[in-house]
Write a structure and sequence with these properties.
three-stranded antiparallel sheet; 1 helix; mainly beta; five-stranded antiparallel sheet; 104 residues
């Protein structure tokens, strides 16, 4: 789950979360989630990086696309990842990482 700025890059910026619902001269407003799915649906992640000081995430995909998740708040949660083992990784305000596991 991402609650901050994200963008998909190829050889340039292809799409960002801030593009959602803007027309950009198109016949209808852009559905950024649908477009992101189109760009990444047949890709696999080949590399992953986490920036320690800001908790920026960078996913590199097999067809060359890159997904960057960029926290932009010193106070709000930016993203959350839950592993198949139900381990939670949460980027909280100011670039701090909280972790916990679901109790079974």
């Amino acid at each position: 789950m991402v609650e901050c700025l994200w963008r998909i890059l190829g050889t340039s910026i292809l799409l960002t979360s801030e593009d959602h619902q803007h027309k950009f001269g198109l016949p209808a407003p852009l559905d950024a989630l649908a477009r992101a799915s189109e760009l990444l649906v047949h890709d696999t992640v080949t590399d992953f990086a986490l920036r320690d000081d800001s908790l920026d995430l960078l996913f590199t995909f097999s067809r060359g696309h890159r997904l960057e998740i960029l926290p932009t708040s010193a106070g709000h949660e930016a993203w959350q990842i839950v592993s198949p083992q139900r381990q939670h990784f949460i980027a909280v305000g100011g670039g701090r990482l909280n972790t916990h596991s679901d109790e079974t």
